[in-house]
Amino acid sequence: MKLKGKVAIVTGAGRGIGRAIAIALANEGAKVVVNSLHSEHADKVSAEIKKAGGTALATAGDVSSARDIKALFDSAIKKFGKVDILVNNAGVVHFEPVLQITEAEWDNILSINLKGTFLASQAAVRVMKPGSKIINISSIAGKIGFPQLAHYCASKGGIIELTKEMALELAPKITVNAIGPGVIETDMTKGLLSDKKSRDGFMSQIPLGRVGQPEDIAKVAVFLASDDSSYMTGQTIFVDGGWIIR
């Protein structure tokens, strides 16, 4: 129970990586605010946590909206009285050749992935006490380039640099770290991984020889949320089966 007595907010927690992180934090004793754009997804994960004996609060909102972010933190403080851990997981991806990305598509990806991370972090810092943790979810796409993902790569690279800046500015009160997932089996990647050619292409780049699972990311999130990582800040841990070392 590494997180007993802690209160955590996880954005984009309605499914996939966010769901796995929310459940893992709850299993370690944290009270978890499960945030999702869709209330039915948040409700479902919250119910899972409660059924397992944990404590959770379901909230719905758009992380790119300052008003929704304020409502999220107001709900967390009203229910639990504090916020110790923030996991900025909410994100979207869309494949499009660079010459065909519209202004609206660019704005949508950057607003949710990067702006959302900033807004939630800013709100968290206003209420967090010393010893608190911010964990951002980036991607290997923030470190290496991928065709047809200019806007996504820009947003995830921005998260890595934002993590460094916030770590410097908020030390020693709050630690800020990031996780860079590789190819993880979720609803977001289902289409790509169900195509044999695409899956084989991914597998050829992964030294460990398998696609990652959401729980692989959740285990690292627990580490970064706990005192085990108390002497780390400004770092991005890539959980990618070895992709970026090739």
Describe what you observe in this structure:
- With 246 residues, this protein is an alpha/beta fold.
- It has eight helices and seven strands; from the N terminus they run βαβαβαβαβαβαααβ.
- The chain has helices spanning 16-27, 39-51, 66-80, 103-127, 150-170, 190-194, 196-203, 214-225, and strands at residues 7-10, 31-36, 55-60, 85-88, 132-137, 174-181, 236-239.
- A seven-stranded parallel sheet has the order 3-2-1-4-5-6-7, sandwiched between helices.
- α3 packs parallel to α4 and α4 (103-127) packs parallel to α5.
- The radius of gyration is 17 Å and the shape is globular.
- The model has no long low-confidence stretch (mean pLDDT 96).
Write a short abstract of this structure:
45% of the residues lie in helices and 15% in strands.
Strand order of the largest sheet: 3-2-1-4-5-6-7
Please identify the structural class as seen in this structure: alpha/beta
Largest sheet: 7 strands, parallel
Number of strands: 7
List segments where confidence is low: pLDDT < 50 over at least 5 consecutive residues. none
User: Would you tell me the overall average pLDDT?
Assistant: 96
Shape type: globular
Provide the helix percentage. Answer: 40-55%
Distance between the termini: 36 Å
- The rounded Rg comes to 17 Å
Structure keywords:
single chain; about 250 residues; alpha/beta; 7-stranded parallel sheet; globular
